[in-house]
Write a structure and sequence with these properties.
The structure is a single chain. This protein is an alpha+beta fold. It is about 35% helix and about 20% strand. The chain has a 6-stranded mixed beta sheet with strand order 11-16-14-15-12-13. Strands 2-8-5-6 form a 4-stranded antiparallel beta sheet. A 3-stranded mixed beta sheet has the order 4-3-7, with no helix packed on it. A hairpin with an 8-residue loop joins strand 14 and strand 15. Helix 1 packs antiparallel against helix 5, helix 5 packs antiparallel against helix 9 and helix 5 runs antiparallel to helix 10. The relative contact order is 0.12.
Length: about 375
C-alpha cells in the first residue's frame, strides 16, 4: 500500500468534502495591474499575465505585486491556470490572482485541483463567474501535501522527458530541412522552368464562415483549407485528389499544405496541379523549400499573387528521380510531423499520461453530508 493510500485510509476513509472553487479561493489581486502599453523589455519585476508566456514582460511598478505568495493566477480570457511562488507583477486586467481562504488548503494542491477542472466555455469573457461554482475535493492537509509531492515529482519528470523529446524533434527537423534542401538542389543538367508552364494553379471558392465548423463530425467531415492551412470542416468538398495547397492571404501566406481525398479550398488557398512534369508529392516538397512567403506583397494584409508564383522558375528533374526523393522525404516527414507516429506523438503521450495520473490522484469519494 502506498503512503497516499495509507493516509486516505487513516484520515478520510469515508470520503472527502467537496467545496466550490469560489469558496476555496479568495482574491489576492495587486492594488493595480500593469497595462500592456506599459510592458517593458527590462525591469526589476517580471510581469505574469494570462498569455501563454510565463513571463510576458517587465516593470518596476511595486504596486502591481500581489500581496501574498505563493498564489494561483487565472486568465479570464484564456482560462490558463498558473502557480507562482516568486515575486511578480500582475499583468493585464483579465488576469486574476487567488490564494486559499483558509489554512485547511495548500495553495499548490488547489492549483493542481484547479488544473484538473473541466472549465465550461461561455463566450470570450467571464469564465471565473462559471468556474467558481465548480467543486473540488478538499482532503485533510497531509493527503493534500502527499498529492502535491507526487505531482511535483511527476511534473518534473514529465518536463525533463518532454524537453529531451522536444530537443530531439528540433534536431530531427533541422536534419530534415538540411537533407530536403540538399536533395532539392540540382546541377545545370536539370532544366529550370517557370511554374506557370509546369503547373496549373487556381484559387478555391469563397465560403461563408457560418458554413465552416471547427470540429470534424459526421455532417462536416471535409477539411476546409484557407490562407493558413486547415480552417475547419465543411459538409461538401470542392476538390478530390492529391494536391499541394498554397496559402495566398495573410502574414503566413506562402505556407504549403498537402491535401488528399475530398476537401474544400477557399479563395485564399491556391490548389496546385502538375501538368505532367511533376510528381504531386515532389511538387509539395519543392514548393515548401522555395519559401514562397518571401514573395508576399507588403501592407496591412500581405498577399501572394498567383501570377507571381507562376513566374518563379523551379528545377524539373526526371520523374524517376522525383520518386526517389519523395520516398526519402516522406520517411523524414513522418518522423517529424505525423501526429500518429514519431516524436510528436511521444510528446503528446507524455502529456496525456501526466493528465491521467493527475486526474486519478484528484478523484475522491465524496463524504456524505
Amino acid at each position: 500500500m502506498s503512503k497516499l493510500e495509507e493516509l486516505i485510509n487513516e484520515l478520510c476513509p469515508d470520503g472527502v468534502e467537496y467545496v466550490p472553487l469560489g469558496e476555496a479561493l479568495k482574491n489576492n489581486n495587486a492594488s493595480e495591474s500593469v497595462s500592456k502599453k506599459d510592458y517593458k523589455e527590462v525591469g526589476n519585476i517580471p510581469i505574469i499575465d494570462q498569455s501563454q508566456a510565463y513571463i510576458a514582460a517587465y516593470t518596476d511598478k511595486e504596486s502591481a505585486i500581489p500581496p501574498i505568495l505563493p498564489c494561483i493566477i487565472f486568465g479570464d480570457h484564456t482560462r490558463i491556470v498558473k502557480y507562482a511562488d516568486q515575486k511578480f507583477a500582475q499583468g493585464d486586467s483579465g488576469t486574476k490572482v487567488f490564494v486559499p481562504t483558509s489554512k485547511a488548503a495548500e495553495t499548490k494542491y488547489v492549483y493542481y485541483a484547479f488544473c484538473h477542472l473541466i472549465i465550461p466555455s461561455r463566450g470570450y469573457n467571464r469564465h471565473w463567474s462559471i468556474v467558481k461554482d465548480t467543486k473540488i475535493p478538499l482532503p485533510p492537509l497531509p493527503v493534500q501535501r502527499e498529492i502535491v509531492r507526487i505531482l511535483d515529482n511527476f511534473t518534473e519528470l514529465t518536463a525533463e522527458l518532454t524537453a529531451e523529446l522536444t530537443a530531439e524533434l528540433t534536431a530531427r527537423k533541422k536534419q530534415y530541412e538540411y537533407y530536403r534542401n540538399h536533395l532539392l538542389t540540382f546541377g545545370d543538367d536539370v532544366p529550370m522552368i517557370a511554374l506557370g508552364d509546369t503547373c496549373h494553379m487556381r484559387s478555391g471558392k469563397a465560403i461563408s464562415s457560418s458554413r465552416i465548423s471547427i470540429q470534424k463530425a459526421g455532417n462536416t467531415s471535409f477539411a476546409c483549407f484557407g490562407g493558413n492551412g486547415i480552417r475547419g470542416y465543411v459538409k461538401e468538398a470542392s476538390h478530390h485528389g492529391e494536391f499541394p495547397i498554397i496559402g495566398r492571404q495573410g502574414a503566413l501566406c506562402g505556407n504549403v499544405n498537402y491535401a488528399t481525398g475530398n476537401f474544400y479550398a477557399t479563395e485564399h488557398a491556391v490548389v496546385v496541379e502538375s501538368l505532367g512534369k511533376y510528381n504531386q508529392r515532389f511538387l509539395f516538397y519543392l514548393l515548401t523549400a522555395m519559401n514562397l512567403n518571401q514573395y508576399k506583397s507588403q501592407g496591412a494584409q500581405p498577399g501572394l499573387a498567383v501570377g507571381n508564383i507562376e513566374n518563379l522558375f523551379a528545377p524539373v528533374p526526371t520523374l524517376e528521380i522525383q520518386e526517389r526523393i519523395v520516398a526519402i522525404l516522406d520517411r523524414f516527414d513522418t518522423l517529424c510531423n505525423d501526429l500518429t507516429s514519431g516524436l510528436p506523438a511521444e510528446i503528446e503521450a507524455r502529456r496525456k499520461q501526466y493528465e491521467y495520473y493527475r486526474d486519478k490522484l484528484l478523484t475522491f469519494k465524496e463524504a456524505k453530508a
